[in-house]
């Protein structure tokens, strides 16, 4: 029950009413028996500055930030983590005694999900990233921390792939290839990750690449979690790939936020269960 000592959290976005974060984080607080509460706030772009001032004024301990505020919010904070700077976006704010620190838990959340659910080590692995938008940028820095052999970006608009690769000063570890070289590159790939919007509801029959290009035993991963199993993953599975969907990224980005805010390990399985229940 909330009382005069309840510590407050929230998520801001536009739209926001679809967000599963409140049920997931409130379940986590309950599981750990800590006196915290988490709500969703609809904040339009022209209200972002006031919303952040409100966090300071009311002493919220933390905030999640979602579309369309992840980039604009950075200018309103006091400090940014290395990961947030690399991703060029913030999804989690921690209020450290009045100092607002911005983090990005999307990329590290994705990587933790990939490692815990399907591929325990990415060291020495060759990873192909399909797409070169904000979602790709968000995960590449986190993937690079795992010491893979190579991260190769391929995108419909090739110039965006080469610009994104060049923006990571990681000594040749992040490169780009033209889409026309993708079939050949897939023969060497251990993990192929779809970060494009291809296959997202309502266009669920679409696939980002021909799944017959994928190597048997390699991992096919999709950031999309609606649907839970995209057509890309369905076809990849038939092809003999191990598959990894996008729901884990959502769960673990929330788990990291919980851990930054409370200093306690997140009850990941309970968080996953309550989200799965709400989706069914
Ligand atoms: P997000 O923040 O989700 O990454 P984004 O920045 O708009 O969104 O990026 C969308 C990505 O999906 C881009 O890589 C885009 O390719 P382009 O750079 O060529 O636009 C990719 N994408 C979207 N629709 C696509 C399609 N029909 N075929 C291939 N790639 C597509």
UniProtKB/TrEMBL annotation:
The keyword Nuclease does not apply. GO terms for molecular function: NADP binding; quinate 3-dehydrogenase (NAD+) activity; shikimate 3-dehydrogenase (NAD+) activity; shikimate 3-dehydrogenase (NADP+) activity. Residues 115-197 form the Quinate/shikimate 5-dehydrogenase/glutamyl-tRNA reductase domain. It holds the Pfam family SDH_C. InterPro entries: Aminoacid_DH-like_N_sf, NAD(P)-bd_dom_sf, SDH_C, Shikimate_DH, Shikimate_DH-bd_N, Shikimate_DH_fam, Shikm_DH/Glu-tRNA_Rdtase. Belongs to the shikimate dehydrogenase family. This is Shikimate dehydrogenase (NADP(+)).
